[in-house]
Amino acid sequence: MNSSNLSMPVLFVGHGSPMYAIEDNEFSQSWRKLGETLPLPKAIICISAHWETRGTQITAMQQPPTIHDFGGFPRELYEVQYSAPGSPELASEIIDSFADAHIHSDQKWGLDHGAWSVIRRMYPQANIPVIQLSLDYHKSPKEHYEFARELTSLRDKGVLIIGSGNIVHNLSKVAWDKADDEEYGHDWAVEANDKIKKLIINNGHKELIDYNLLGKDVQLAVPTPEHFLPLLYTLAIKRESDKLSFFNDKTVMGSLSMTSLLIQ
């Protein structure tokens, strides 16, 4: 990679329902606007909630397939293909540069919906290389955070790093009877989302790493770690001089938060 004089921003995106990949709504519109206003990246690395592995892996194929890792949705969604190229060269450079992190090359995964549902809205021409970095399910939140900090230098090489998950993600508590109310959130979900936002604003990274100690509302909001960990990646890469801004800041269907974060 050639170095760039511009340090790229970092994103945490609440990706929500796979249907947002094809629906024209306020969330997908904001993703499109990001693609139009952010500096054009040379490549994108996405840490998605939907790729958990033993050890850390990185996609290293020339043409990553579009993975439809969900069920029960309309045929139109399964027909979506996002044909962005991969970057074996970037994957190899990351593996070599962060040798102590023991990142392994992957030739099978591709792009799951945590990645392509958002990125296809940002860059519909599919002309920017995209690779995914997996979540090692053996790592603790603190280990994920410390590993992510090592990736910060990639920002100075024109790489846009995107964490894709949801701050509040509890599918067992979805309010299906409120599905048409796009702004409905259970009290505990709204309280947890607000609590986590305040910690983000105040750089309370240690408290966020130990999110299980933040009270019952956060325990309900984060019953499993995979949708929360991409937020820790984004925060770990933040520099002291960076500014924060939130977007898509809503809780939907009772127990899903779309709250997203731009660091630049």
UniProtKB/TrEMBL annotation:
Keywords: Dioxygenase, Metal-binding, Oxidoreductase, Zinc. It comes from the Bacteria. Residues 12-210 form the Extradiol ring-cleavage dioxygenase class III enzyme subunit B domain. Its cofactor is Zn(2+). This is Extradiol ring-cleavage dioxygenase class III protein subunit B. GO terms for molecular function: ferrous iron binding; oxidoreductase activity, acting on single donors with incorporation of molecular oxygen, incorporation of two atoms of oxygen; zinc ion binding. Signal peptide: none annotated. Belongs to the DODA-type extradiol aromatic ring-opening dioxygenase family. Pfam families: LigB. It comes from Paludibacter propionicigenes (strain DSM 17365 / JCM 13257 / WB4).
